[in-house]
Amino acid sequence: MSAIGEKLLGTLTGIAGEENTSVNAPDIARYVVDGLAPQVVVRPGSAEEIAEIFRLCAADKLAVIPAGSGTKLRMGGPPTRYDVALVLTRMARVHAYDAGDLTLSVGPGARLADLATLLEKQRQFLPLAVPFAAKATIGGTVASGIDSPLRQGYGTTRDFLLGAEFVTGTATIAKSGGRVVKNVAGYDLHKLFIGSLGTLGVLTRLNFKTFPLPESSRMFLVSFAGASGALDLVERIVRSPIEPSSLDILSPSLAQLFGGRAPSTDPGLAPIDSWLPSPEWVVAAGFGGGSAALQQRVADEMARMAAEAKASGTVLLDDKKRPAFWGQLREAVPLLLDASPGATILRIGVLPKCMGEIFTAAQSSAERHGLPLAILARAAGAIYAAFLPEKVDEDTLGRLALAANEMSEAAAAAPGFSSILYCPAQLKGKTTVWGRERADLGLMRKVKQVFDPEGILSPGRFVGGI
Description:
alpha+beta, Uridine Diphospho-n-acetylenolpyruvylglucosamine Reductase, domain 3, single chain, 3 domains
């Protein structure tokens, strides 16, 4: 153990307790980020303990990376420094749950799976159908900004995160928002933390609006020979009177993955190969609740629009079959990571009308550089383009870097943005994870300076090396 490691261990043990600090090799290895390992792992139990840890780290210029279950540590740019892994799994308490008021207040270490079980008892849920659902924590989900297919019907996290408590890099414990849907006017500072990857502070308590669980659900899988037909149907559905809770497009290669294997994150998912025509583009439209008459109206509308868009086939999944497909859709990211040792998944945001251009650009780039490609697109304009090489070597990394750069340019021209969600750590030295430099980077740096003036929180992981 290094001298700084001995000093850290002694001080952190005094703050969090001996049983909650570790320099053991297995613990250290679990929280390695892009090849960089922390010197110490500490598991605080309160906001006050985190503040004490931050005071120590700021004084000694020690870099801290917050973590939960570790499923999102591969996201973001490579850290420039890393001394302390701040693991928040002890802070899993449900502080308040008012089913009648549809509000939930919880610590960042609470697992999504446990929250789902709690809410289901009251026929409620949080619309966070995110990947790694069996292990993911609520704090990591918010801090990573990871997407959910339910954004079509319920919006993104910023739409139902009512407030939060957090600790900044200055060791200040602060609050923003509240615990009820109607709050006093003010700055929603807590929304700055969504997708910030722990670069501004650490969330220590999160307040959510919950939603009634639909009595029933169903999903329509509509297949097309080409992407244009799928995009046509999505546009028709968005303009129609029916309101899907989820609306996604799967490329033929992704549909084949769905049909051929279960993701390692949920091996219990049933095979669905007999439900998906292959190789074709698939529109997956999910609907929840409603009377029998409304369900029939939705079915009739879907049949009409599918025929007008010249679909080659339609499959209806009821409550018995839908969960298996839904699980595959939720776990699409880990499924893609399982499919290739060099899986490079780009997250691209454009206006819905520009999605066809991005599909074309991704297919052209994949062909030009000899990279297998799979695409998942949300109707709102969030596209996941995954390049899936069979091996990882210098030549492959070079081709992946070229493809990622081309997609960044294509997204900027749309206009939109592109970033690398997951990729081999070696690729991060050959291209920027965050794509083109953003016009608001200067403002971001000012915000970072206010929240973390010593630069101790996740240095290097966010846009522009923040």
